[in-house]
Specification:
It is a single chain. The chain is of the alpha/beta class. The chain has helices spanning 12-23, 58-64, 85-105, 144-163, 204-216, 238-245, 265-271, and strands spanning 3-7, 27-32, 50-52, 70-73, 110-116, 167-172, 175-176, 202-203, 224-227. The strands form two sheets. Strands 3-2-1-4-5-6-9 form a seven-stranded parallel beta sheet, sandwiched between helices. α4 links the parallel β5 (110-116) and β6 (167-172). α1 (12-23) crosses α5 (204-216), α2 (58-64) crosses α3 (85-105) and α3 runs parallel beside α4 (144-163). The protein starts with a strand and ends in a 14-residue tail after the last helix.
Length: 285
Amino acid sequence: MTTVAVTGATGKTGKVVVADLLDHGFDVLAVDIATDGGERGRTAGTDVPLLLADLTDYGQAVDALSEVDAVVHLANIPAPGLFPAAHTLHTNLAMNNNVFLAAAHNKLSRVVWASSETTLGLPFDVPPRYAPVDEDHYPYPTSTYALSKVASETTAQHVADWSGIPFVALRLSNVHVEDDYRLVPGYWSDPHLRKWNLWGYIDARDAAAACRLGLTAPVTGAPSFVIAAADTVMDRPSAELLAEVFPGVKLTREIGTYETLLAIDRAREALGFEPRHSWRNTITS
């Protein structure tokens, strides 16, 4: 039985990742800097151990990963604009560098970690060069948050080379839980509201599945994958939206009516990733 540490385990995505791993037979150690209201030393609603650790401190990162086989690293400041720009860059880099080096020190078997769709050029104030946007539309950071992810992808590549440990970066789209879907109809009247990420999103349950698949996929080195839902948040055809909002951006291939403009082909091929959840199962237009 593989024991997996999940950092950022009490966060929006982390909670779902912990639950998914448990459902699939993994032992889990939850790691976060804040409690989620569970009993002392336990994650809320489960018997999962909760270790409070500040991962900006290397020693605490080493200790946190000392008795696990792999790590799903989600702990970071989760978006630009929440803190001063320099603080976001420094904090995320410290956490990522420490976790990566601690994983190598402890000889873990795998590191799966949350990179970001922002590495691809979001919020697309400058239009993308083409669509669907894929892994080759990189690097194009437009904030220190995105820069922290780009720099960390470079670090992951080198630590993977040094250690022989596979590092899997998931360039997650905007994570939605079911309650977030009530907001989706509010996007439909103005296609510019969500143009910043080409109307993309990812259901937290599918993000969790991608994390789990990343733990076992037959990959080497430090590959990165776009992780998004199979569709957009809009009730209009994707090609029509692109032509209206980004008229100079060409499609590189035919796409389905509501198909995502954040290409997930490589994640499908390399990880076996297949998004199974959509707002369309919850909200009707």
